[in-house]
Amino acid sequence: MTSHLDEGLLHELLDGEIPSTALGPIQAHLGACAECRARLEVERALLSEADRLVERLEVPGARDRQAAPARPATRWGRNLAWAATVVLAAGLGYALRGPGVQPPLPAGEASPIAAIVPTVAEPADTLPPTNGRFASTSAPESRRSAEKEELADVAGLRKATASKDPLRVQNRLDEAVVASGPEEKAAQAAPQQIPQRLEQQQAAPPTAFRNVAPQLGAAGKAQQAFTDSRDAQVLDRTAVPIEEITFSQAVGRLGGKLRLVEGLVPLRLEAQGESVRVIYPLSNGELVLVQRLVAGKVEFRLAAPAGFPADSLERLRARVRE
Amino acid sequence: MTGLLAELFAEYHGSLVRMLYRRTGDQDRAEEIAQEVFARAVAAPPRNPRPWLFAVALNLLREEGRRAARQGRRLVLYRAEQPEAAPGPDDMLERGEAIARVRAALDGLTDRDREALLLKAEGFSYDEIAETLGLARGAIGTTLARARRRLVLAYRDLEGTRDVAS
Fold it and tell me: What is the mean pLDDT of residues A7-14?
């Protein structure tokens, strides 16, 4: 690709509408063309500002109507507290299961590309429609090779464009539903024990996280900014550092039950405590699929930037597949 | 049939009213048009509801605009916005002015640009925007880029005008 990227293409890129198969040439051009990189940042700021302007035109009273029942901070806090205790138990159980389950790889051991050796065989109809970016072990070698190249494109593109991303700091993630019947039942069953257990959990974070803290990157800082801006009860989760992980590591952490949003191409994978976060690009920030293993089952929630339409979030949630 | 209506209503009503409100600035009209759209959906259930519902809504708006123009009736596009909380008078004034500027900037766009922008704000994909507006999928990126730029520039112009005036 020799000619400059036109603004339509830049907006397609920012809106996450470029098919993964077409990202390669664009990434290559952006890597080589400072002018287009600068234009991309200009368009990104423009897009962000336009979105903010449109969002000001809220239906009178809509915010009040939406805020009341749908997003109870107390429920999240309750779920989080309960989950914290269960994660401890599940983590212990996981450690005692022996070699049958692939353990998470140490952070930084392998690049996202080098480590993409799938460990879980998924039925074809559950794979994302991007032709199995994260393919099963039965995929042909040529297909796996193509997928590695695709991931290289995505990773490279992100590095090329995300070095100064004000949106990362500005983003305020909206809470979405924590999908889990058993979690709620358990939370109701032992409410008195929750605060105490949560305090214990916070007072003694897992050793691995202490080692990861200095490696916090932009994502961690953005999350911290977010923490400062919102209800602390809701945001206890951000006290745990975030580290970028490979696909294999994510699969390992979830006992082979990693979930993805069907039809979307992940930007990167992160670990935060026992949770795995799958990050997808949005025009005004990032969509985050947070999931963790609780008593052998994956529980997940989906979070989007403030202002993201609730009905769209619901539809995305319905597309979460194992 | 009632089940279908309930399902469609639950899933799309909020989003549709929001888009219509942003488009018209009139909550009552937005609600009325949305009701009409859902009534039509029940009469002829769409196969792909979301683009269909929004396309019908935008068509109704355009028809209404043409009819109003023929009758020489001036459309009220700038209904006063009610603040959501209860801020002080200065905040209310500032907020109301800012919203009026956004609306004026939005109304300065072409129908196509404005509608593409509002559909995107409702989480539509490029494919859905293309289907709803009857545009080529390849034109959506350019349309949105132009719409966003014009909206922001128009808003900044209006802000500049205000600053100069005050």
Answer: 93
